[in-house]
Design goal:
The chain is flat. The chain is mostly helical. The protein folds into two domains: about 130 residues, Four Helix Bundle (Hemerythrin (Met), subunit A), CATH 1.20.120; about 150 residues, no CATH class. Pfam families: Cytochrom_C_asm (PF01578). It comes from Desulfobotulus alkaliphilus. It is a multi-pass membrane protein. This is Cytochrome c-type biogenesis protein CcsB.
Length: about 280
């Protein structure tokens, strides 16, 4: 069994977990929620195994690199970091409701990698500029940041559609309290902002060693900076102007839209970071 087959199976496990989270949320079945968590753990462990096996396969092929250098591998790792972060948050808070909104994001990331005919799962050698330990540091920190922003996006959506105190009590009980969602959004943005900052810094050091310049206004560098500024503004208005609630939720959603363009949109633009170029 190779890594691609394992990760294809993991795709359907994540899909089943997401479906069970949604069903448990709609029908308020705690036992289904526990089943969803168990499935997500199974998917996470399979995802980890597939990632590690792909790493070993690269050594067997004489390439010997960490699997983080193309769109397929980055999506696999993105789903891995999202699953890990969510399982930790669920364990700490005991709130499974967020899984109904975040589980589908985990599934969609790896489903795009596994099922899209436009994404190759072949293991290829690195171009010389990518043969650096800074690659691992840069990509890992960036995707930890992306995972935090993705979870903040999910809680922001939940906050905006929260039925409020005047609504039917049955629907209210399906959501954490608005204050809980707002606090979790803030915490995940702080987490994401920290790791995105480390990712940008490590990327600059790597760029200098590879291309002789810390910053070249490559499209991905530019959009990473735009994303960083959006979340910096969010944290500023939260801390200095005491913004909470819908304003923070909308800024979080705007920030995640910038994350998605930074990740996917720039691949259609010429640049050193385009996954289509390697």
């Amino acid at each position: 069994m190779n890594s691609s087959l394992i990760l294809s199976i993991v795709t359907f496990v994540y899909g089943a977990a997401a479906l069970l989270y949604i069903s448990a949320w709609i029908f308020q079945k705690p036992l289904w929620g526990k089943g969803a968590t168990a499935l997500l753990w199974a998917g996470f462990l399979g995802n980890t195994a597939g990632f590690c096996l792909r790493w070993a396969e690269s050594y067997q092929m004489g390439i010997g690199r960490i699997p983080l250098s193309n769109l397929y591998e980055s999506l696999v790792f993105f789903s891995l970091t999202m699953a890990a972060l969510y399982l930790f948050v669920e364990w700490k808070t005991g709130r499974r409701e967020v899984g109904a909104f975040f589980g589908p994001l985990i599934f969609l990331a790896i489903a795009y990698a596994s099922l899209s005919p436009n994404i190759s799962d072949q293991i290829r050698p690195l171009v010389p500029a990518l043969k650096s330990n800074w690659l691992t540091i840069h990509v890992v920190t960036c995707f930890l940041g992306y995972a935090g922003f993705a979870l903040a996006f999910a809680t922001s959506i939940m906050f905006l559609i929260h039925p409020g105190e005047g609504s039917n009590r049955g629907w209210r009980t399906r959501f954490p309290a608005p204050e809980v969602l707002d606090d979790l959004t803030y915490r995940m943005v702080v987490f994401g902002f920290l790791f995105l900052s480390l990712g940008i810094i490590s990327g600059s050091v790597w760029a200098n060693s590879a291309w002789g310049s810390y910053w070249s206004w490559d499209p991905k560098e530019t959009w990473s900076l735009i994303t960083w500024i959006i979340y910096a503004v969010l944290l500023h208005v939260r801390l200095m102007r005491s913004w909470t609630g819908k304003k923070i939720a909308w800024l979080s959603i705007l920030g995640f839209a910038a994350v998605m363009f930074t990740y996917f949109g720039v691949n259609f633009l010429p640049g050193l970071h385009s996954y289509g170029s390697f």
